[in-house]
Amino acid sequence: MKKITLSILLLAFSNFLLIAQNNEVLDKMIEEVNYLASDKLEGRETGTESEKLAARYIRDKFKEYNVLPKGTDGYFQYFEATIKSQPHSEVVEKKINGINVIGYLDNTQKETVVIGAHYDHLGYGHYGSLNDGDKEIHNGADDNASGVSVLINLVNELSENKNYNYLFIAFSGEEHGLLGSSYYAKNPTIDLSTVRFMINFDMVGRLNDENVLALNGVGTSSCWDSLTDKANRYNFKLKKSDSGVGPSDHTSFYLQNIPVLHLFTGQHEDYHKPTDDVDKINFNGMYLIMSYVSNIIEKSVIIDDFDFKETVNDTGSTPKFKVTLGVMPDYLYDGIGLRIDGVSKNKTADKFGILKGDIVLKLGTIEVTDIFKYMQGLSKFEVGDSTTVRVKRQEEIIDISIIFQ
What is the dihedral of CA 125, 88, 343, 261, to 10 degrees? Predict the structure, then answer.
């Protein structure tokens, strides 16, 4: 026990020294997140003037760090898309024009590593907001100014590792359904067959006190599992999932048979709300995540064949559902069931007394072992249907009767 405690203390001290020696990078991260998540940018919604301001800011950072333009118009790649009025609606609201910002470090190597993060967010919350009040600016400090800042600062971090070329892409349109990354994957500005792997940062600004870091897509290559462990000298408690498909931009590259890795520090009660602000960002955690990814890339050099693997659960479609409980899953929870990390006011769960911290074990007749089984359970119901939800609340098992709203 003493050896384990000493080891943890040494790792924590090592992290402290690493961060303390790099205050300049931390200052840049603070500056970048403060700008991208400022009211001036009005939530960076795709197709707006604030999106253009953010795109120009990222472009100027690429220029500052001598990253070459690799879009179709300098650093920019424009795309057009039709969006719905709400995420689950079939009603088409309008067409929008978005901008991917793309830069390239050319080290004249045969293989390229793609680094991605989306920079768009929800604007005033007309689409996708979980806010119950009046329309307000959704600044998206964690989602995803945090990821963009890590991407930008990786430029200098990777400049000494010339074993790969590096393609840096700040995607737009992610909040409307991975529009920018999907467009890029279908209209690439480099030969995608030369891409060794793609790493995606989405919501990496809330590393908690337990240092839990989610790694999604670990099953997309036989190399990821051991590599991510060997590179973890930062005391991260890694929560790994295999699937290459998820609600972020790595999915678009996985579907092109490219190994992917998505880093994520977890959902929180400010997700898709105006309260996702800079004062809640863990900048030290962002720095450690950036250093961790740099170490992953460095250690990957000795791997001869970075293979691609199709992951389980990807060949079947995600169940479609017309109802929800109105809860926020705890994506860092790795036990049996679905742990609730937040309950939306006046939604089904809230009205029938389901609480934050409850673990859903059964939805109707469906045993809920994970989020996929939870979605499968939801797919069985329509608005107005009644059922029973079995939850574990601390040490008590409770059956709660509900009617889907």
Answer: -90
Which residues is 328 bridged to in the sheet?
342
Question: Which domains does the chain show, CATH number per domain?
Answer: 10-300 (3.40.630.10), 327-403 (2.30.42.10)
Strands 92-105, 165-171: pairing kind: antiparallel
- The pLDDT value recorded for residue 14 is 60
Relative to beta strand 92-105, strand 76-84 is antiparallel
3-class secondary-structure state, position 354: coil
DSSP 144: I
Contact 51, 163 (CB under 8 A): no
Per-residue 3-state assignment (H helix, E strand, C coil) for 255-301: CCCCCEEEEECCCCCCCCCCCCCHHHCCHHHHHHHHHHHHHHHHHHC
The pTM for the full model equals: 0.82
Angstrom distance (rounded) from CA 340 to CA 343 = 7
At 223-269, the pLDDT tens digits run: 999 999 999 999 999 999 999 988 899 999 999 999 999 999 998 98
Residue 216 near residue 264, CB atoms below 8 Å? yes
DSSP secondary structure letter of residue 190 = S
